[in-house]
């Protein structure tokens, strides 16, 4: 047997050393190409003028690249391959504010240190936010962190009140900054929802909702992060209270589910509740405020594979309103400024504002209405519309309080007509059974899942798409996942077989 020449040994060594990183590099290129094609398909789907043939052609490209990828040595197991393929790893995109945001770049910048002595936002017993100077000498890092968060609350609370604490008529007749994108009026005895979108920002919304439920149940249920998994089951993976900063301020965490083709998302939210004085001296109706904005927490760093959402200053004011019959309902005026992070198609903003948000409030109203009895029970210390009878506002500890809503109580099933005016057009549909996290819109509207205000639906392929697209995408994903274990083995084996043939040719003794 001929002995290998030094040149052949060097070539073999370089092949063994360089092949793995080369395969990974090729893999990353393929991932980016496939991701681009996938979102091209979504863009095509969003256009009603596109023929099904064009859409099928794009999806065929996606499937072809996915099936051929193992031939280039992608070192990924079949079970997670399809999910990792489109999750945005290392893929930067431009968001509405013009800043490049990648998965690892979505962390909230640290809060600037407050001046000393600082102003605390610790609430007085009346909940009006009494200010006081506090000493900061010899404070621990944890005490400093809490002080800075509370100082941030005080600053943003004033700004939010300046924006929201005005009559509804003033909001609706502002300049051309806000565009009405949804006006849902279901008739007498049903919630009314209006949604406005900022013309200059893709994910900036204002909402007005008149709910049929009393103030305290509406405030306590909708703003308790732990309830998100009940009324938003389709989208919310988990929700919990992380830390109490004071009687009215806490840090919440929630995580959304990953739905093809986007990643799971999460958010760490600084939430502050407050009791506001009546709108005028002639009114005795209660008014509550919740302020929300993103923050960081030592125990919750960004996680690999989960996109960290950022919430700018947002929140809402809830107040009692009368309908002329003696019944007291609830009005909500809310502001949401969101950066979903990662890669989310822009047309989703329109879908969320015109469909998902109104539908979620119809669902929420029905769920709360079915659980009001807890407040009116003879042995209950709760009330329908006074601060001392609210779960979130009357107790001295939040995390120790069990939710007053029975998680086993059945969610009512109703048929509710929805008429949503969007830019002058009226789309009609029906909200069928309010179960499993929200209604599905049928009729002329496209089928989708309802989600809570501020959360992001993760199934853009099923939005504004030709009929059957959702099933087509699901079948494509299933085919990829089924084939990947076999093709990965075959592809890697093929690469190493090619290396073996090359080495054999190098060792072959040349003919004389």
UniProtKB/TrEMBL annotation:
Residues 132-141 have a biased composition (Acidic residues). GO terms for cellular component: cytoplasm. GO terms for molecular function: lipid binding. Residues 113-142, 422-441 are annotated as: Disordered. Keywords: Membrane, Transmembrane, Transmembrane helix. InterPro entries: START-like_dom_sf (IPR023393), START_lipid-bd_dom (IPR002913), START_lipid_transfer (IPR051213). The chain crosses the membrane at residues 482-507. It comes from the Eukaryota. Residues 219-377 form the START domain. This is Bet v1-like protein. It comes from Gonapodya prolifera (strain JEL478) (Monoblepharis prolifera).
């Amino acid at each position: 047997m001929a002995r290998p020449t030094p040149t052949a040994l060097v070539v073999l060594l370089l092949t063994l050393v360089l092949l793995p990183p080369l395969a990974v590099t090729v893999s990353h290129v393929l991932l980016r190409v496939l991701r681009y094609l996938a979102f091209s398909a979504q863009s095509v789907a969003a256009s009603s003028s596109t023929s099904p043939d064009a859409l099928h052609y794009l999806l065929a490209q996606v499937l072809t690249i996915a099936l051929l990828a193992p031939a280039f040595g992608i070192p990924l197991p079949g079970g997670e391959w399809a999910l990792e393929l489109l999750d945005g790893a290392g893929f930067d995109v431009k968001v509405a504010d013009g800043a490049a945001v990648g998965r690892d770049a979505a962390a909230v910048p640290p809060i600037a240190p407050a001046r000393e002595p600082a102003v605390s936002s610790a609430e007085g017993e009346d909940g009006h936010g009494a200010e006081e100077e506090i000493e900061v000498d010899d404070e621990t890092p944890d005490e400093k962190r809490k002080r800075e968060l509370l100082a941030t609350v005080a600053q943003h609370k004033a700004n939010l009140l300046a924006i929201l604490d005005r009559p509804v008529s003033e909001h609706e007749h502002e300049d051309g900054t806000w565009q009405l994108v949804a006006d849902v009026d279901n008739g007498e005895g049903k919630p009314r929802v209006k949604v406005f979108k900022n013309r200059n920002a893709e994910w900036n919304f204002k909402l007005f909702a008149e709910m049929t439920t009393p103030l305290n149940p509406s405030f306590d249920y909708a703003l308790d992060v732990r309830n998100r998994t009940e009324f938003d089951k389709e989208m919310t993976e988990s929700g919990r209270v992380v830390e109490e900063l004071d009687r009215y301020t806490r840090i919440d965490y929630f995580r959304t589910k990953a739905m093809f083709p986007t990643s799971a998302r999460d958010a760490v939210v600084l939430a502050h509740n407050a009791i506001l004085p009546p709108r005028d001296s002639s009114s005795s109706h209660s008014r509550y405020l919740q302020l929300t904005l993103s923050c960081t927490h030592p125990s919750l760093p960004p996680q690999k594979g989960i996109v960290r959402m950022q919430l700018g200053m947002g929140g809402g004011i809830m107040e009692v309103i009368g309908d002329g019959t003696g019944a007291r309902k609830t009005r909500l005026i809310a502001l949401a400024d969101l950066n979903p992070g990662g890669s989310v198609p822009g047309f989703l903003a329109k879908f969320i504002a015109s469909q998902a948000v109104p539908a979620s409030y119809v669902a929420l109203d029905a769920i709360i209405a079915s659980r009001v009895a807890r407040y009116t029970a003879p042995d209950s210390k709760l009330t329908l519309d006074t601060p001392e009878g609210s779960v979130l506002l009357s107790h001295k500890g939040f995390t120790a309080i069990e939710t007053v809503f029975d998680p086993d109580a059945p969610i009512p099933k109703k048929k509710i007509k929805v008429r949503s005016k969007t830019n002058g057009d009226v789309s009609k549909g029906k909200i069928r059974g309010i179960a499993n996290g929200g209604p599905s819109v049928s009729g002329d509207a496209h089928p989708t899942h309802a989600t809570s205000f501020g959360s992001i639906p993760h199934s853009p392929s099923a939005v504004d798409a030709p009929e059957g697209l959702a099933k087509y995408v699901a079948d494509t994903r299933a085919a990829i996942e089924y084939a990947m274990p076999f093709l990965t083995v075959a592809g890697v084996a093929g690469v190493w077989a090619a290396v073996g043939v090359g080495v054999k040719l190098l060792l072959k003794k040349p003919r004389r």
